[in-house]
Amino acid sequence: MDIKQQRSPEVSLISRFRKNLESLRSERDKSWLPHWRELNQYIEPKAGKFLTTDKNNGSKKDQKIYNGRARLALRTLTSGMMSGTTSPSRPWFNLRVGSGEGLQSINVRKWLDSVEEAIYSSFARSNLYTELPKLYKSMALYGIGAMMALEDFEDVTRYYTFSVGEFFVANDERLKVGTFAREYQLSVEQVVEEFGWENCSYDVKNKYNQNLLYEQVDIVHMIQRNDDRDEGKKDSKNMKYRSVHFEKKSNKGLSKKDLFLSESGFKRFPVFCPRWEVESTDDYGTGPGWDALADVKQLQVEQKRKLQSIDRMANPPVVAPTTMIGKNTSTLPGGVTYSDERDSGKGVRPLYQVDPRISELMHDIKETESRINETFFADLFLALVKTDRREITAREIDEIDSEKLLALGPVMERLNDELLDDLVTMQFERLLEGDMLPEPPPELEGETVKIEYISTLHQAQRSGGLSSIDKLISFAGAVSQAKPEIMDKINGDKAIDKYSEYLGTPASLLNSNEDIEKIRASRAEAQQAEKQGQASLVASQIGKNLAGASMEKDNVLKQVASQFAQQQNQG
Question: What's the pTM value of the predicted model, to 2 decimals?
């Protein structure tokens, strides 16, 4: 039974959006925001915008940081995720189709290669590779990041990464982020320029007329599923997701009703909100920053105590007789302080003996720093950086630290689902809609193009498959020394296909099954012709020898010739 909810006119629609915003704010602020603030204070003060007035806020925010190890570890993790997952200097995904025989034709492979090149080229032209590090950093520190992908005339897609604290999210029925809201500020002049005079509130118009162009206006941008859409219409207001802008606080003034600054829509949810780790049905996630926070706090205390101890040793508190009040004293090397002889032995002296256990404190600081590095996977990524080679294979990564790669496994799977799949698919669709891709071959009609990730970290996750194939082939090779027939058990073609899949090699490097059959048939014909040629050569040589040999004596040639003649006569 279809149930259609009666919708209110626009005046109540914007009111509904305001109520939705407050619900999102309540869910976020009651537990997530305080923790984010701590992460911001102790690890990365430059990140996070918790007030709309934080725009252009360059004030000092690192008063609680005495040791920056966590910030450096976060930087290493961010760089490692970028270079190991979506490196701009090497391929990190391939496009494939189904496993049918017809889908391995040269036309299909050429088309896939052309599409890959177009997507890579459009990514390189855009600002994607400057925004992704910000996204990975937010994921690792706070547990969630947010990046919006908007269509752009010059770059196909333009990407905008938002700081934690300025956005709100909620899950859809598939437990992926399906609602996004953001608060930010624009000047009066920017509001009028971007949204048009007719859509502005009475307050904005009044300030504009008074030439108060640079006063800030709080703007809300919300994207959520459009339950009011008419699926028969294809305009922007009837797409699957509704996108609206409105003033956070506005005076209806003479218009008598509150208006949206703009209302449009998207076919596909345009915001990527990958989360490092999510518990059950939570909207927001957690990350290494959460796990490291206790150690980071401990490190700051220990570092502060160490500095205080060193300071007390170098410049200890002193005690002096009252007779020295008002007299000049010198604490400089070679300085002289004068006092009466009767006060001998009562001059300036340390108040108490300072003897801190600096070595033990340093040892514990090192242990704490080591745990922080481990939590942020910095030791894993630093091991890759410290290798002498410029490039490193997935197998070598696995040998460096397989346990840490296993810990990254769930993160990589979630990254595929919440970022990379949508990122590549959206770009493919926009290029296709813009007629920027070649016409697909007829073999692909009704088929689905699949994405396969071939970055260094993705390959490392699959390196166990490579290892098992290597061990099987090595074992079979050893056994074949005694029993050669054992190699008949191995399907070489399937082994190569599987190995290529794990390595992520381009499909165009492998011959199709049709090409393989032609090559093998041609080789068999050549081998048969070679055998026939060798047989003819032997027969010719025998005839030549018979012609020059004496047939009077009873020798082998005479016996062969006699047998040959008998066969001819019998035939």
Answer: 0.79
